[in-house]
Design brief:
alpha/beta; four-stranded mixed beta sheet; three-stranded mixed beta sheet; 25% helix
Length: 182
């Protein structure tokens, strides 16, 4: 009986819904409004602070949303593991520090710049990126070239970093709209 009373009281006195927030820089009415309680903190200053603090050891920085919103920073070496707390305006952010990464983001980017080596092993490749979650250099080939994924180990050995080859459809670049005079 007490549970029923508590439940009905709670529903009768529900807190007011927060006003939707509009991301900065967007004109009024542009896109759906985001309720204030769903807005995530601006992590740009946090990423800058992490880069300053860990300098040449950054292997990746990314956001996780499960089980709660937090930032993960991957580092080379074995020191500084644990959890940090940062204040971001009115929000507090938890930062999970993982150590033991084999390569920094800068090392992976430098491997991506070795275009001649990549082209020698993967002539049908059309792009690539650094996966900061896994520490892999990801190289892309067109769908239909799945056999090229078998060259990842040899390419990894040649570049000295972990390589993953994936078959993906290339992004379509469309011409920018042009203003016409009427």
């Amino acid at each position: 009986m007490l549970l029923a009373a508590t439940s009905s009281v709670a529903s009768a006195e529900a807190p007011p819904r927060p006003e939707p927030a509009t991301p900065a820089g967007l004109p009024d009415g542009y896109g759906p409004a985001i309720p204030a309680h769903e807005m995530e903190p601006d992590t740009g200053p946090l990423a800058a602070a992490l880069h300053e603090r860990f300098r040449d050891r950054i292997a990746g920085i990314y956001i996780e949303r499960e089980p709660d919103f937090h930032v993960v920073v991957r580092l080379t070496g074995d020191r500084d593991a644990g959890t940090l707390r940062y204040q971001l305006g009115e929000d507090r952010a938890r930062v999970e520090v993982l150590t033991g990464a084999r390569h920094t983001v800068d090392q992976l980017r430098a491997a991506l710049e070795r275009r001649e080596t990549i082209a020698r092993f993967l002539p049908e490749g059309y792009g690539g990126y650094v996966d900061e979650r896994t520490g892999d250099l990801v190289l892309t080939v067109d769908i239909g070239n799945e056999a090229a994924t078998g060259r990842a180990a040899a390419l990894s050995e040649a570049l000295g970093v972990p390589v993953r080859v994936v078959a993906e459809e290339p992004a379509m670049v469309r011409p920018a709209p042009q203003q016409t005079e009427d």
